Task: inverse folding
């Protein structure tokens, strides 16, 4: 029992670390677009996402029940024994974290959710056999939603983008005529962050609850996570979100389509609606897949926009590899447990620490932060247009226009003054010339009279 208790502590610690990686891995799903379009500053965006992830984690526990009481059969847990099954959960978490850290290092927007499912399923298959997995639940709650949700979100985003551009058609000739959607993006991106908390934080709660049920510290009749589990998972995913997944944000900034404010508003609305609906139904969705589907749908919905299908294909391949890759690592970790018992758990723990530290140290060689992630996006000019400075607001535009008009009026007054001065000079010159002509005429007349008088005298 003491060994099982120690393994439970290790499982809880590793599950919370997975929750932490989930936070910074999926920040881009909500905040890449509003940061890129200038709706939110980078640090403000990740802080807002962190707070809303924290709040969202308290709003629903349906997904947690899917993890703790759906995928793995309870009779298999009992037959395997507490020590072995807890070790298998530990091994599965190693598979999920390894894939999360690797894809984060590569800047690949993969699914943390599927990494977790893959790791747990791979470890359970090795340690408890095929019968331990409820494949019907896996199909209905994980696989089918993973296939349907991105398509649904994409269709909703496509329709929403069409509607947004249709009702604002009068701004077609004005490049910044739809800047008002930036304000809408603040709301919709916040909704996505809230939805992320209601879905993704629940998965870690489910893993911890499953471990507590296995050791007998929680009744197997009710799969509701305990309050301390909810609080711990909520704050952990919020902390991970605040640190910001700048590598993933940079990748999304180079990938799928040129996103305008109206598109971003439509895509984020679709993403939030899909995730919130799935959370209420207990579907353990991948927010990454839903967000990507929405962005593609919005790209197809805007006339003149281009979806980069090659990039979308690469991301899709990453999604396909997530379940088997995380499952393979989880299975290898489980093999050590099956062969070596408790020593296998120790070896797994050491290997996990080395992998995490190794990937983290490798990431320091080319660190990506809020300072350089956005500049890289701007230089790419591919997926999300990010000017060095955001376009001026309407108030700033009015001020600039007023200044330009005042300058034009001042220049016009100067031109009038210059012309008046020029006219005065020309008039004075003309007057002087007239005087000179009169004087010359008088002089000539006087000279002529003098000549005539002299001629008369001589006669």
Result:
């Amino acid at each position: 029992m003491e060994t099982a208790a120690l393994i439970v502590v290790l499982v809880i610690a590793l599950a919370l670390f997975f929750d932490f990686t989930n936070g910074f891995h999926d920040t881009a799903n909500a905040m890449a677009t509003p940061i890129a379009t200038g709706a939110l500053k980078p640090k403000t965006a990740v802080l807002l996402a962190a707070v809303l992830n924290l709040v969202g984690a308290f709003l629903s526990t349906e997904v947690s029940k899917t993890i703790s009481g759906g995928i793995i059969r309870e009779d298999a847990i009992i037959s395997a024994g507490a020590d072995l099954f807890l070790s298998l959960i530990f091994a599965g978490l190693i598979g999920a974290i390894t894939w999360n850290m690797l894809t984060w290092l590569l800047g690949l927007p993969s699914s943390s959710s599927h990494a977790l499912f893959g790791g747990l399923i791979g470890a359970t298959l090795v340690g408890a056999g095929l019968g331990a997995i409820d494949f019907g639940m896996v199909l209905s709650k994980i696989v089918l939603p993973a296939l349907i949700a991105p398509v649904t979100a994409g269709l909703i985003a496509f329709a929403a983008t069409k509607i947004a551009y249709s009702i604002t058609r009068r701004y077609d000739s004005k490049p910044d005529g739809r800047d008002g959607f930036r304000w809408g993006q603040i709301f919709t991106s916040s909704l996505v962050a809230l939805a992320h908390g209601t879905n993704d934080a629940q998965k870690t709660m489910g893993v911890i609850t499953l471990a507590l049920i296995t050791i007998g510290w929680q009744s197997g009749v009710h799969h509701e996570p305990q309050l301390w589990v909810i609080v711990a998972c909520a704050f952990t995913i919020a902390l991970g979100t605040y640190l910001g997944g700048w590598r993933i944000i940079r990748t999304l900034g180079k990938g799928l389509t040129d996103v305008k404010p109206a598109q971003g508003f439509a895509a984020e609305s679709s993403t939030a609606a899909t995730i919130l609906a799935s959370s209420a139904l207990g579907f353990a969705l991948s927010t990454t897949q839903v967000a990507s589907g929405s962005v593609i749908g919005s790209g197809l919905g805007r006339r003149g926009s281009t979806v980069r299908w090659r990039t979308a294909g690469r991301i899709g391949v990453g999604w396909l590899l997530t379940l088997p890759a995380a499952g393979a690592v989880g299975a290898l970790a489980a093999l050590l447990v099956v062969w070596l018992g408790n020593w296998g758990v120790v070896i797994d723990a050491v290997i996990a620490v080395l992998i995490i530290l190794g990937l983290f140290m490798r990431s320091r060689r080319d660190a990506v932060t809020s300072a350089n992630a956005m500049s890289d996006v701007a230089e790419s000019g591919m997926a999300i247009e990010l000017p060095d400075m955001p376009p001026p607001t309407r108030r700033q535009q009015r001020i600039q226009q007023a200044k330009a008009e005042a300058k034009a009026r001042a220049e016009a007054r100067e031109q009038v003054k210059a012309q008046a001065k020029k006219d005065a000079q020309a008039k004075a010159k003309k007057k002087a010339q007239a005087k000179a002509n009169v004087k010359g005429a008088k002089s000539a007349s006087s000279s002529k009279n003098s000549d005539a008088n002299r001629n008369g005298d001589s006669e």
Summary: Residues 1-373 form one domain. The chain has two domains: 1-373, 395-439.
